[in-house]
Batch of 4 targets.
Target 1
Amino acid sequence: MAVRVEEIQVPRGRPRLADRVRGWLDREGILGPVFVTPALLLLLLLVAYPFLMALYFSLSNAFIGRPSQFIGIQNFVKLWESDAFRQTFQNAFVFTGIAVLFKVVLGIALALLLNQQLWFKRLIRGVVLLPWVIPTALSTLGWWWMFNSLYSVVNWTGIALGIMDPPGPNWLGQKHYAMAAVIAVNIWRGLPFFAITILAALVAIPRELYEAAEADGAGANARFWHITLPLLKPVLAVVVLFSTIFTFSDFNIVYVLTRGGPVNSTHLFATLSRVVGIDTGRIGEGAAISLYLFPILVFVVWAQLRFVRKQAY
Amino acid sequence: MAVARRPLLRKTLLHVGLVPFLLFALFPFYHMTLTSLKQDRELYDRHAVPLIIRQGPTLEHYTKLLWETEFLTWTKNSLLVTALATGASLLIGTMAAYALARLKFFGVASFGTGIFVTYLVPTTLLFLPLAQVVNWLGLGDSKWALVLTYPTFLVPFCTWLLMGYFRTVPKEVEECAMVDGATRIQALWRIVLPIAVPGLVCAALFAFTLSWNEFIYALTFTSSSEQITASVGVTSELIRGDIYFWGELMAGAILGSVPIVVLYVFFLDYYVSGLTAGAIK
């Protein structure tokens, strides 16, 4: 039990101001709000307020350097009539779906390998995590060079190994190849997060479970499907939800690699919203596009709160 | 079952299985380094083998980058923005995390949920209205706009991470100190924070990495060469009309990653634990 200072000290006359402040700060009901105020102000002024602005912009004809008028849902209607937006909408689901699926499967495989007795364990972990810590915009420049139409090292290697016919695909210039390239870089960048997180969950599975199963004659396959996978489920759910929102809202990779091209075939909400909102100045329409990320955010938050974090906040 | 009975063979096979993953992770960095060290003559020879350097390495691209571009200015900007945003976020985040983990007061639960929700808000959702806010504040095309806005994603992250660490500090330790006459703030400062140092290091590292790597805010809020950060400078100012810029571009991408790599090498274990704490706790 915390004994409050004012219960011990019997104040005689008026205490000095400093002492009184100190006394207040010892009360949870006062110290708590004092401690959260800076964070609260920051989140209200620079997150909640801009969010309301985004809502208003999306319902207005806001244009850079011009007063805006309320126009209702016209922006959203206009977007649905534009091919660029419908293409983007489709891209976002293809990009996120394929990338997250690969990251889960490869992440589990890599985590299972990392969970074994290995030589140079620390070094290997360091290498695996590297793509995740390097600035994405900069490492994607490396991939841009690797997919260059004239000097692609990917094509050179493919041709040398006899997998590709010369000159090989023009990765960033053809629709489906461009999408494949963007997805590949996203997998490359996101895989470490999956592998390391899943590895942490694997380490936490009690060894006795496997020993008992083995004693009962369960093979490696049975042990994976009946012990490992069910016990990984909660962590997999968190990781997939996390990754879904951040893959959906990705910007850096597409911006550096393709700028949404060729012909909008790799645009995501964030990149299209930047083109419309900043490059052409139609802030209202740009805000409407980026708000399409909001339902996904709501879903992920809801799912996390509902299924994953059963305890309060 | 022959494999299971021969541990060494099994172990070797495991490593062979890891090779594709390691190649996938490392190859881009290898190729970038190689490109940055090659002479243009070899770099743009379509008959040369791209996987090795045959005609001798050169530092020409690096010297050009350092002395003929604004790269050093961009790096200085990145350091300034990152250091200030990290410091401020750590302070604000520590206070909020302690309050959430330890204190009972009106609205604590909804504030906790609020932090969690903003932790998940992607930066790409709010960059357009934030650009307007930045302009109103007179910070258009200024690196100070980044110092101001980066805490919007760093504070929720630091708070969330530190809350987990503070909860692992036994309440009794703190209460003992308070029974002995320390105020709550003294107990926090002398008892709880020293125990939570690993958490603070972890939060600082991640905040530093996140703000060093931030791209869309920097790209949107700043544009002139004196204000932009390393990521933006390298991606927007080193790409020229002709095609022979690759050596310098790769040199820029490598040097722009150096601060993170240095931290990473020294604090690998903190990265691993912070990464998993962020998702699992």
Note: Chain B has a mean pLDDT of 89.
Target 2
Amino acid sequence: MNRLSDAAVAHLRELVERPEGAPVRYEIVERIGEGGMGAVYLARDRDLGRDVALKVLRVPEPTGEERARILREARILAALEHPGIVPVHDVGTLPDGRVFYVMKHVRGERLDAYARGRRPRAELLRVFRQVCDAVAFAHDAGVIHRDLKPQNVMLGAFGEVLVLDWGVAKLRRPLPATSSDGAVATRMTGDAATLDADTAAGAVMGTPGYMPPEQLAGSASVVDERADVYGLGGILVFLLTGDHPSSTFPAGERWDVPAPLRAICERARAADIATRYRSASELASDVANYLDSLPVAAHRESIAERIRRVATRHRTALFLVLAYVVVRLALLVFARR
Amino acid sequence: MPSPTPAGGASPAGFPVTHLSLVRRVRSADAETRARAEDALAAVYWAPIYAHVRLSHRVELEDAEDLTQGFFVEALRRDLFGRYEPERARFRTYVRACVDAYVHNEAKAQRRLKRGGGAHVLSLDIAELEERLASDGHDDPDAVFHREWVRSVLVTAIARLRDRYEHLGRRTHLAIFERYDVMAGGEADRRPTYAELAASLGITATQVTNWLATTRRDFRAFVLDTLRDLSGNDEEFRAEARALLGVDPT
């Protein structure tokens, strides 16, 4: 007989997934997030007396593919020491064979929720530049994220911006070798190599709207840093319009977005790889130019736009000159009376 | 002392290394093995199938009961479970397709369903299931089938855990788990505290903590073992595990 209420079923399902048997050091508090590969739990680190986030695979996996991927994600996070990338503290295996890793618990808001709060455009663009900085750092380290979207960016309580979920990242070069002392480290080395081979074979991983055509086509060999530029372009469209990015920038005047910013979005999200910004830094630089009222590389401006831009950039000086002229004219008028 | 691990050889993780699933055992040449596997499959699937017949085919209560029982008689007679091919679809997708074909044929023939005839008699707790269907009435029939399937898997796992723990003499472990995680119905305010459990069972609160953790770990193993039983291969097992956890309920 099925004498289980819906609430009991929900509770038992959660029990099945819960990482019971995690090392005594970590006391599981509650589930705080989930994805296709694993669930994230808030846990208490008893040794250090602090909250941490523990990511664990949902089910034991006979083929080892996802196990390798979660270990690889932990290693990538460990290799990318940057204020914009969440630091990893520990990695291990539960008694049932599921792999977990422990990372910093980020208190804050996801970028998609943050952007819905009707923030000033300049503030959103500054956040966007921080995302670009973290991604550019990863590119320098040979890591391509491949799933950049607002849901994978977290804003901390003190304004820090963190790029999350590196589970489908592609490595352009091998990660630093791990110690062969621990069993987990030994397994990671082998598994990471296997996974690299799998991703090179061209499995389609990413999110529609943020995934460039070459990634969607499964052409893993041609996916490079510019795939992330495309994803960043999608994030920029979302920040400027509040909408999920489609293949082109929303047409018409519904969106009150200045032409230079539209041009930046379009270049970042160009279907042709060669037309896109070559790097996240180049994209960030063009956004910085816009914020500083400097010429934007993606946009050929008209004379009127140039005058407007120069006037905006030098508005204080212009105001002082105008004020001076007005005062001088006023004095002349009074002197003639 | 026997291990509390589910049947089969156990890996260090506590899961069977080699395990012939129910789905494969229904093809066994041995009649007794085949009959046991068919009974076990029927026990897991009767509620989801009843719900599916009621909601997808809009059949009245009595007819749904007849059709559900009739389907199992037919499945045994025609060896439908044994003819399943894991490469072509998930087992439960295959079962649903068989049910649909059976109901369609029955409606076409417009004849009364034959019941019994030496076949297995199923324990259908229709009233309880009907109560749930009444509250799920507006839901998608596929979602209701999925929900009933999840419930059946969990009930089966609890039954296996109970059998195993009774065999091991771990009645107190079982009592803690049932009172804390099963009978409280997932509602925190109905759940006894560890201290209350300890007092009523005559053990310490630390023992409650440790034994509950052990039992939950074994319960998890039994759930996954049940899923393995209901899957034709590793790939299907993983898909079913993800579906049970709500990741991919398709």
Note: The first strand of chain A starts at residue 26 and ends at 34.
Target 3
Amino acid sequence: MNKRARAMVNYLISIVIALLLAFAIIGALLLWQGVDPVETFMALFQGAFIGKSNLGASLLLATPLILGGLGIALSFRCGIFNIGGEGQLYLGAFAATWLGVNLVGLPFWLHIPICFLGSMIFGGLWALIPGYLKISKGYNETVTSVLLNYVGVYFVNYALSSFFKEPGALNHQSPKIQTSAMLSKIMSGSELNTSFLMALLIVALFFLIFYKTDVGFKLRAVGQNAEASRTSGIHTRKYLLLAIIVSGALSGLAGSAQVMGYQHLMVQNFSPNTGYDIIAVALMGNLHPIGVLIAGIFLGALRSGASVMQIMMGVPVTILYIIQGVIILSILGFSRANIDFIGLVGGLFRKKESQSMAKEA
Amino acid sequence: MEFLNIFLTPDFYSATFRLATPLMLAALGGVISERSGVLNMALEGQILMGAFFGYLGSYLFQNVWLGVLTAMVGSLFLAALHAFMSIKVKVNQVVSAVGLNTLALGITSTLFRFLFGTDSQMASCPGMANLDIPVLSDLPFVGPVLFSQHPLTYAAVVLLILLNLFLFRTSRGLELRAAGENPQALDVAGVDVIRIRWLAVLTTGLFCGLAGASLTLTGLNTFYDNLSSGRGFIAYAAVVFGKWTPVGAALAAILFGAGDALQLRMQTIFDIPYYFYMMMPYLITFFALVFFMGAAKGPAANSIPFEKDKGRRRSARRSRMGGN
């Protein structure tokens, strides 16, 4: 087995172990509560994968996770820890909704790209702030981006309660976007829409750009060893800035995809914690676009399954946070410890062989 | 004019210290951990754990002091995990903090739902009363501001003094600082760097437990999801803003507390939307970091895991390969 395949298999094994660990912890919690864990997990998986509408819901919820996760993967790959996804997502969604409501009379093929572009610009600019502060002044981007999350979310909530509130609505919510800004559905009986296809397209584009072009090569080089790439003539700062802006833009897109895809209007706290969930997605996907795609679908499925589980079993959806936390920590741990599972298992066999050989002798 | 009157009332200053207490306790904890060389962005999760377990303990035992104790235990659990991940497994400490914070959110809100149901309207637990220090609390102005606070505020001040003495006046404190600046040198001097870092991170957990308890057990006496709502990050910012010194971090925490107290009072005077007030603590922290800080330099070995035998292992390998 070549080195790359071996690393891949090891990685998959570590994910399986992480998942088993997470489910073991949840299972223990459920047993303690007197809930049947097997039945609960069955409900979870049934809600996630069984049936057209459940599957559609899973892919629907996966869309923003894939988009945002790609952005996080890019920024982490380049060594810039943008954890401001939450604020970027809210501002992006806000921009898209505003454009979707206020631009009247545009054909859909113009309206939809404008909304998406608006969300990318807002998300990207919001990410530019911590990025600029990091690159020009050396401020820790994690602190600044987290603080900006709260500022961004409160700003959007303010907008939805005042100048951008649907007149006469009881809740704090925006007006409905124009029909020309709504994405069309691609699966009957579910809300799944073209934003999922867009996410797939962006995954492919990301893969091509990141692995097959000059810009991608430089981005990877900066992430691998910033000092070496700087001395070899790469404009490191430029690429770091590019990475964080793109990651913000993708987070913004993750927000607008939800509004334009199926919510069609914005309510306060419309997408709680997604900005942190995408970090779990990126790490689970090994910071690789294809991995992010799979991890995004998986976590989306868990999310959609969890709501079914909550209805059927009365187990709160918040167990997802436990699962995510355990996954992040164990995947980090396993990849850092660099355990060679294949070697371990192989080693066990070899030991047995040598023991049996010793017995024979 | 009405606005300026805020600053004349003892009420404002008293609220400042009350609101600064959790920030200060967590920031002091952060100073300990960071000075020993372990980045601690998981303050948020630890405060949340402290807040929930403090509430839980106080509710179950119907005793606020046992609540404070369970708060520290709950927070310690997360701190131990943090220490294990950062010191033993040596993972990226920023990303693991994200995992720890998510885990804390999951543990607290899930346990809360399991134990109190989804629509339990605020089962309240015993809380702490303000402790009036005799004679001193009767002083005009200064009395209510400084000497009529809840016990954890006094604890924060005492801990600040103790920590300052410990860090800069004892040899153990010197060792702790050395662990964060030049662990290799400390190791050569025969001091166990790993042990110091473990103890430091666990102590941070205890501090954050107190911080969490000071959120739930001093008047609120209940719990809700994500109760800490970013205070851990503000505390972390206080550590950075205070340039990694206990006094600096405490002053920064008091500044941020004052911002919080100010926004609560301004709400009644100005007709500015509520959301901007909610935003203010984060915005003030952000601008404090950006405008008044200059290039901050933390402990040199902060966030770099310590490898004990790095040098020796390398020379061993070299000799094995036949070179010298």
Note: Confidence is low (pLDDT under 50) at residues 319-324 of chain B.
Target 4
Amino acid sequence: MKTTQTPRPGAAGGVPAAGGAQAAGGTRAAGDGTAGRPPLAVPPRPAGRWKPWAALAVVLLLTAATLSPWAIGFDADAIARNWRNGADRIVRLFSPDWSFFPRTVEPMLETLQMAVVATVVGAAVALPVSMWAARPTNPDRWTRGAVRLALNVVRAVPELLYAAVLVAMVGVGALPGVIALVLFNVGIIVKMVSETIDGSDRGPLEAGRAAGATQTQINRTIALPDMLPSFVNQTLYVLELNVRASSVLGLVGAGGLGLLVDAVRTYYRYDQLSLIILEILVAVLVIDLVSSIVRRRLV
Amino acid sequence: MTTLAPTRTDPTEVIAPRRPVRVLRAVALTVATATALVAFWSIDIQWSRLASLPGQVVHYLDLMFSAPSWDKLPEALRQTLRSVEMAWLGTVLGIVVSFPLSFLAARGYGPAPVRGALRGLFSLIRAVPEIIIAIIILSVTGLTPLTGALALAVNSVGTLGKWGYESVEGVDHGPVEAVRAAGGSTVEALRWGVWPSAATDFFSFWLYRFEINVRASAVLGLIGVGGIGDMLTSYTQYREWSTVGVLLIVVVVVTMAIDAVSAAVRRRLTDGSTGR
């Protein structure tokens, strides 16, 4: 425990700063000598060492509060009762039902289609919006602030909630899924790319302005090539996220593998679920691999 | 090259350097364009439906936000609290589990087989959406908020573990060597060599993961574990748009508020430690 410290020798205790410095100087001077060496003056411990412990106490308290029966609660009995039942089902995860494969092909393709289409549309929308959201490419404070605020709002809602609402609006199918993913993608790409633009070297932009270019010309010829690597990088990243996200959008009726996940989970067919999970894993890992290769070679 | 020669008659003329030829880039662009075209052409969407979309969106936005039913607000806030509790518990459990694991998975501290296994586990977890993890867990814990918290915890271990070992590997090796040279054990090297430089990274990862979990906990409601997502799906299915509007407003405001608090805490933590 930190709190039980052994009392430190003489000088360190309550000596003011100047005294401490002197003591330290004295130690160094006498360091080469052998006898009569004063004890090493340990600098006083910085104040406020209780703060991390206070923070930890607050975190533990809040956690205990969430575990109380009025909040989430922790019903060990129910878990013990469910355990046998659940364990059987989870064991079935390890024996995938391969005969289910043919039925998963089409939803899997739809998942990938949704991911690709949403990435393309999202990236196309995000390119100009990123410029509106960054200071060097949009000096107007008000439009910039408005774009950023709108995107913060868009980013605050997860894509599955968008999908749930959009399915009710435009009907079941791939379309609400794609729209939900596009909203999700624009939020991410614009945030990342506009931060890159904000952090980029201002020199070329100022040179452009000095040469008499309009803001549009500057953005087109100077800022665009500068932001392109970051933009491609984020687009690839978003593609990875989309493959993962689009595989569950079907849970709310938005097309893709999620539709099957929903059907399978209703009947607790965990052997089929495990095949679906395997396919998601393969798809995600392949896309990650491809995009990391592309990223290394191009960006 | 040969075409350049005759143009050089005027010495003041500026000659632009030749554009470099990038075969790989061209190939990648072609493949990407082809993939996109195939996806657009083959996906099962009637693009004509897009024409009526803006009108529909305006119509529904009007239904949602013109007269929100604020009488549902207390219930919405209660459900949001439930979601945030899930996120909190999930984050804390995730931290407790991932904290030792991320040191074990770092090069130079854990044994190689353990390291490989842990890294595989982390990337496996990260590839599976949390809602599927929740579906697996609910067979044991049932449709309760605890299921949501556990699913978030599992998912948090995947990301926190990865960020953690990357951060541990990224610290300056000087202090670690100093501790080793002074006869410190591995644990002491981690405590006094690694932790002081990695601590702020860890804190901001934890906060960031909490922000992610707040969003994810809303999503987990979709499968019925409770919280704001649960409420949102039911009211969407009843097509009670005026309540859906309130719920969306609550989600946005609460998420942005938590992000703001988390950003403030992070700033305080990182500035506080560098100022010392």
Note: Chain B has a mean pLDDT of 86.
